[in-house]
Structure to design on (451 residues):
């Protein structure tokens, strides 16, 4: 009897730890699943870095093509730089220095015709254009008189008429200006007499301004550029009329067109900007960096950049990876409990890696066929892979169909969120609330303390 009692006691002691483990086996499994989810964040971080890297590669390719063709152009001018002497006295010694003022035109009328074309660098596309621009208007001494400038001090016979351009490589032909009855050919560079550092200038005789006469001007430019063209509204009244063979223009800057017409093959747009709409006057006497920034910030124009958003959309979809992995693992866990099927942690990990691979497939396909078709193809491949794997694990069609249906709904839900802008937060919050409610509903049916 003593031997029998001693053996029974040992069996009870061995069964107590085993029973304890069985009692908390579900909790231990949940902890293991949580650890796997955290582990799967490592490949997701790597995929997000890859998306960022591909986006930077795209920008580098676009910049490389743009630099070889010509950069985006911003046209500032024409305007006048008129110098005048200033005498200062220091300790009885007089010193004469030369200062300058800027006079902007009364009217600035721009008429432009642009022809766009697509250049390729590897798999990336860059939109470039060639333009023919006509700038017309007039200068008058009216604003000089209003500013109480001493007209006698101004060196009208050595004034410079300036035209700033962003990239000089875009100039296709020699530029000249018809000013009154005279024609002047522009010289390269600004000779330290311009608002910006790059552009062209011409030394002119503006003596007619002393006689209170208007000086009409006309400039014709053939200019190349890439991705966008912008204008600075220097005139009292600035009117710009553009036409281009591009059907997806994006109007940028401080002012939108007053009129626009967009068809399947081209667009036309007209802007009108008054001097009252900007933060600088027609005459700048003591100009400084603030004036220059106000002028630069008043630009407006049109962007021809090809809408390539697959990297941004891929990154946004990758942000929801943890949600998809968490819910997928939750369904697998509930399937394991309800169907009395044992699923190894390694099998959870393989499913998680398949879900991570979706984002790599999405990135790869989107570079060649666009984001929407790539999303559909990547989601279909992932659903087939995970659904087929669940069928092989459980040997039952129902869990496989449930898993495939869940992933289909999740990928559709994420796709809708990516497309939404204004209501993205609302839709995301409501979706998460419904998902949490469903998880809570199914979890209450599980006896967490029994095998």
């Amino acid at each position: 009897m003593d031997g029998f009692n001693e053996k029974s006691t040992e069996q009870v002691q061995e069964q107590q730890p085993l029973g304890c483990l069985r009692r908390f086996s579900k909790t231990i499994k949940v902890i293991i699943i949580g650890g796997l989810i955290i582990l799967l964040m490592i490949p997701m971080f790597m995929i997000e870095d890859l998306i960022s890297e591909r986006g930077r590669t795209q920008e580098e390719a676009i910049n490389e093509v743009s630099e070889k063709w010509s950069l985006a152009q911003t046209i500032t001018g024409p305007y006048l730089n008129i110098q005048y002497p200033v005498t200062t006295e220091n300790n009885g010694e007089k010193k004469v220095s030369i200062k300058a003022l800027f006079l902007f035109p009364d009217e600035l009328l721009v008429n432009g015709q642009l022809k766009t074309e697509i250049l390729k660098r590897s798999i990336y596309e860059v939109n470039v254009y060639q333009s023919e621009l006509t700038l017309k208007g007039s200068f008058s001494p009216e604003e000089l008189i209003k500013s109480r400038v001493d007209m006698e001090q101004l060196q009208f016979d050595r004034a410079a008429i300036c035209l700033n351009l962003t990239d000089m490589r875009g100039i296709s032909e020699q530029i000249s200006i018809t000013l009154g009855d005279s024609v002047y050919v522009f010289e390269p560079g600004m000779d330290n007499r311009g608002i910006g550092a790059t552009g062209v200038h011409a030394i002119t005789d503006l003596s007619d301004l002393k006689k209170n006469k208007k000086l009409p001007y006309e400039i014709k430019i053939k200019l190349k550029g890439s991705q966008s063209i912008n204008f600075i509204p220097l005139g009292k009244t600035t009117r710009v009329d553009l036409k281009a063979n591009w059907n997806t223009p994006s109007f940028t800057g401080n002012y939108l067109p007053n009129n626009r017409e967009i068809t399947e093959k081209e667009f036309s747009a007209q802007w009108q900007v008054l001097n009252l709409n900007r933060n600088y006057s027609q005459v700048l006497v003591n100009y400084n960096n603030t004036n220059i920034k106000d002028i630069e910030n008043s630009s407006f124009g049109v962007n021809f950049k090809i809408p390539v958003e697959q990297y941004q959309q891929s990154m946004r979809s990758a942000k929801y990876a943890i949600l998809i992995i968490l819910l997928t693992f939750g369904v697998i866990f509930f399937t394991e409990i309800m169907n009395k099927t044992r699923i190894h942690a390694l099998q959870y990990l393989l499913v998680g890696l398949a879900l991570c691979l979706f984002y790599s497939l999405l990135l790869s396909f989107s570079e060649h066929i666009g984001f929407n078709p790539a999303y559909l193809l990547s989601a279909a491949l992932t659903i087939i892979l995970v659904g087929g794997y669940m069928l092989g694990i459980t040997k039952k069609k129902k869990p496989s169909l449930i898993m495939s249906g869940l992933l289909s709904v999740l990928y559709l839900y994420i796709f809708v969120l990516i497309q939404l802008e204004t209501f993205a937060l609302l839709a995301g919050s409501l979706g998460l609330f419904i998902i949490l409610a469903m998880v809570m509903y199914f979890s209450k049916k599980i006896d967490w303390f029994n095998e």
Notes: The longest strand covers residues 73-90. The first helix runs from residue 2 to 23. The chain has two domains: 27-57+310-443, 71-303. Confidence is low (pLDDT under 50) at residues 9-16.
